[in-house]
Specification:
RNA-binding, five-stranded parallel beta sheet, globular
Length: 544
RNA sequence: GCGCCCAUAGCUCAAUUGGAUAGAGCAAUAGCCUUCUAAGCUAUAGGUUGGUGGUUCGAGUCCACCUGGGCGUACCA
C-alpha cells in the first residue's frame, strides 16, 4: 500500500517542487474512518510555504494521479491530513501474493548478499544459564532470524573466556567437592561456586577416575572437566530453545594468536596509549570518552577492553557488514570505550550495533528473587523451560521491548497458563489447520481459490486483508530496529482479527465460490501466522 | 556525585518514532456452544500517561528541572 503512495507522490513531485525535499511518511490512522493510510505532508509544509495546511493538501491531492481501481476514495481531514482509502479489490490481491509463495512471504531482498554477525549469550562456562541469559539468548537469536528474513547471511556467535580468576575458582570448587566425597573434611569458602552442579561434576570424576586425582592441580583436570560439563549443559539448554551457534570464539585464542600483542603495539605506535604506574593506559579522553582507562594492568594482565577490541577487529577482518552485540544492561558502561578505541583505529564502528536489554526481575508469590550464579540461588533457564515450555519462554522474552525492565512472574509461569498470548496465536493457527483438514474430507471437491476474491467484502474480511498488507513492513521495521516485540504485537492483532472473523463467518458449508475465497483468505492468514511465529522461534501447531 | 535505562488502566505491557478520540492481555461484571476447535467471541467498567514548566499547528513521545526505581561508575568481566 505504502509503495503505491510513494510511487504516485514521487511522480507528483515533478510538478510540485516542494514535495521533493520532504521526507514522506504515511501513517496508518488509529481510527478506521480516517482511512487506510494518511499523509501529514501538508502540515509539515505549512511553515515553509506560508499557506494554510488544508490548501496545501488540496494542491497535493490535485496533482496526484490516482488509479481509482487502487484507491477509491481520498479526503482532506482534520487540520490537513490527506487520507487514502484503498479499494477492496486491491486489498484482496495480497492473498494471491501470499499463497503463491507461502514460504517467502515477509521475506525481503533488501540486504541480499550482506553478511551479519550476531554475538549473544557469551556466558563464561562457570554455571548453568540463568533466566537472565534466557532473555539475551532469545533476543539474539530472534534478531538473527529477522536479519535472515531481510536477506542477510547471518553467523550466530558465542564469545567465551575459559581463563582467568572465575575459572580458577571453578576448578578449586570442583576439587574441594571431590575431596569432600573422599571423606576429607573441607572448608568450602562462601565465595566459591555453591551450586549442586559442582558436586555432580566432582562425583562424576570420582566415579570415572576413583581417588587418583587427589594430587592433581585444580586448574588441570578439575577445571577442564567442569568446563566441558557446563558447556554441554549450556548447549543443550540452548538447543531446547532452538538456538544453535555457528561459531564459538574463545577469548584465549586472541592471546595465543598474538592479536592482543599486535593491537597493543598499534596503539603504542599511533601514540594512543601511554605507560603510567607500571600500567598501560588508553587515551580515551582524546577519543571522546570521559577519562583514560587501563588496558594492561601493572601485573601485565590486560583488562577486558583490550581483548574486546581485538575480538571486534577479527569480526571486521572476517568481513561482516553488520555486527550485533547483545548485552545485558550491566555492560552499558563498557562498550563505548571499546567502540571509541576501534574508531580511533579507523574501523567503521557504525557497522557495530549494540543491543542492550534491561534485566529480568523474577518474582515469586509477589517477592523478588535475587539472583547470583556464585550463590546458586538463581532460577535456571532449564527450570523455566521445564515449567513453562520453550514456546512460552521464547515468546515471553520476545514480547517485551528490550529497553524495558521485565518482570517474570514465576508463579504465573508455573500455572497452566491459558492467560498466555502465545496460545492465542497458536490456537488461531490450529483452527485454520482444522478448517483445511475438514475441507480435504469433504465429498464435494473444494479448494482455496483466488478467482472470486471480490466476495470478501465483510468488514471482518476487509480488516484481515489490511492487516495482511502490513506484514512485510512490520518485519522490516522489527529487524532494522531490533525490536522483535513488534512482531508479537502484529501477530496478536492478526490472530484477534481472525478469531473475530471466525466467530461471525463460516468458511465451509456455504455457497461454493464464497467458500473458496474464504479458504484462500484463511490460508493466507495461516501463512503469515506461521512465518511470523517462525521468526520468533515459536511452533505453529496444527492441532491443539 | 556522575553516566545509561525505566515510570502509561488494579496487574503485565503496547502505542506505526511528533499525528487526529492513548490501546491489548490478565483480573472484575453480564452474556454467547445442535453446524469449520469456547485455549474463542460480544458488551460494560477501568486513565490528569510519576510531577512542574517549555518547544509547536499538534507531546505519552522532544528539552529543562524535580520525584521514585534498575544497572553501571575498578589496574573485575
Amino acid at each position: 500500500m505504502k509503495e503505491y503512495l510513494y510511487k504516485i507522490f514521487n511522480k507528483a513531485s515533478e510538478k510540485l517542487e516542494y514535495l521533493k525535499e520532504l521526507e514522506l511518511i504515511f501513517d496508518k490512522p488509529k481510527i478506521e474512518t480516517h482511512g487506510d493510510l494518511s499523509s501529514n505532508a501538508a502540515l509539515l509544509l505549512t511553515k515553509k510555504l506560508k499557506m494554510k495546511p488544508r490548501e496545501i493538501a488540496e494542491e497535493i491531492l490535485n496533482s496526484l494521479e490516482i488509479d481509482p481501481s487502487i484507491i477509491n476514495r481520498t479526503e482532506i481531514a482534520g487540520p490537513g491530513f490527506i487520507n487514502f482509502f484503498f479499494s477492496p479489490q486491491y486489498l484482496a490481491a495480497i492473498i494471491k501474493e501470499i499463497i503463491d509463495k507461502p514460504n517467502d512471504f515477509g521475506r525481503s531482498e533488501k540486504y541480499m548478499g550482506k553478511k551479519a554477525n550476531v554475538e549473544f549469550v557469551s556466558a563464561n562456562p562457570t554455571g548453568p544459564l540463568t533466566v537472565g541469559h534466557g532473555r539475551n539468548a532469545v533476543l539474539g537469536d530472534t534478531a538473527a532470524n529477522l536479519l535472515e528474513w531481510l536477506g542477510y547471511s547471518v553467523d550466530r556467535e558465542y564469545y567465551f573466556n575459559n581463563a582467568g580468576r572465575q575459572m580458577r575458582i571453578l576448578g578449586d570448587s570442583v576439587k574441594l567437592r571431590y575431596k569432600e566425597f573422599l571423606g576429607e573434611g573441607i572448608d568450602f569458602p562462601p565465595d566459591y561456586y555453591q551450586g549442586d552442579y559442582i558436586k555432580e561434576i566432582a562425583k562424576k570424576l570420582l566415579e570415572e577416575q576413583g581417588n587418583k586425582l587427589i594430587n592433581e592441580d585444580p586448574e588441570g583436570i578439575f577445571k577442564a572437566a567442569a568446563e566441558k560439563e557446563i558447556f554441554k549443559d549450556i548447549e543443550s539448554t540452548l538447543i531446547r530453545l532452538k538456538i544453535k551457534h555457528k561459531v564459538f570464539f574463545n577469548e584465549n585464542s586472541l592471546y595465543e594468536k598474538g592479536n592482543i600483542e599486535k593491537l597493543l603495539k598499534i596503539f603504542e605506535e599511533k601514540g594512543l596509549s601511554y605507560k603510567k604506574d607500571d600500567a598501560v593506559w588508553l587515551k580515551l579522553s582524546q577519543m571522546g570518552q570521559e577519562q583514560d582507562k587501563v588496558i594492561v594492568k601493572s601485573s601485565g594482565e590486560p583488562t577486558y577492553r583490550l581483548p574486546d577490541m581485538a575480538y571486534h577487529i577479527t569480526k571486521f577482518e572476517r568481513g561482516y557488514d553488520l555486527m550485533i552485540d547483545v548485552f545485558g544492561s550491566d555492560h552499558n558502561a563498557t562498550y563505548p570505550d571499546v567502540l571509541a578505541g576501534l574508531k580511533a583505529l579507523s574501523y567503521e564502528v557504525e557497522k557495530i550495533k549494540v543491543l542492550i536489554h534491561q534485566f529480568v526481575t523474577i518474582t515469586e508469590n509477589g517477592e523478588i528473587v535475587k539472583m547470583s550464579t556464585r550463590k546458586a540461588n538463581y532460577i535456571t533457564l532449564d527450570q523455566l523451560i521445564d515449567e513453562a515450555g520453550s514456546d512460552v519462554v521464547r515468546y515471553f522474552f520476545n514480547m517485551r521491548s528490550a529497553a524495558s525492565h521485565m518482570n517474570f512472574d514465576l508463579s504465573l509461569a508455573k500455572k497452566q497458563s491459558d492467560e498466555n498470548p502465545v496460545f492465542y496465536l497458536q490456537y488461531a493457527h490450529a483452527r485454520i489447520c482444522s478448517i483445511i483438514r475438514m475441507m480435504e474430507e469433504k465429498e464435494e471437491h473444494i479448494e482455496p481459490s483466488t478467482a472470486n476474491l471480490n466476495l470478501l467484502n465483510a468488514s471482518e474480511e476487509q480488516l484481515l486483508l489490511k492487516k495482511l498488507h502490513q506484514f512485510k513492513e512490520e518485519v522490516l521495521l522489527s529487524a532494522e530496529l531490533f525490536e522483535p516485540h513488534r512482531i508479537c504485537a502484529y501477530l496478536e492483532e492478526l490472530a484477534s482479527l481472525f478469531h473475530k472473523f471466525y466467530t461471525f463467518h463460516r468458511v465451509l458449508g456455504i455457497e461454493k465460490s464464497l467458500s473458496e475465497a474464504r479458504l484462500a483468505l484463511v490460508t493466507a492468514v495461516r501463512v503469515v501466522l506461521k512465518n511470523g511465529l517462525s521468526m520468533l522461534g515459536v511452533e505453529a501447531p496444527e492441532r491443539m
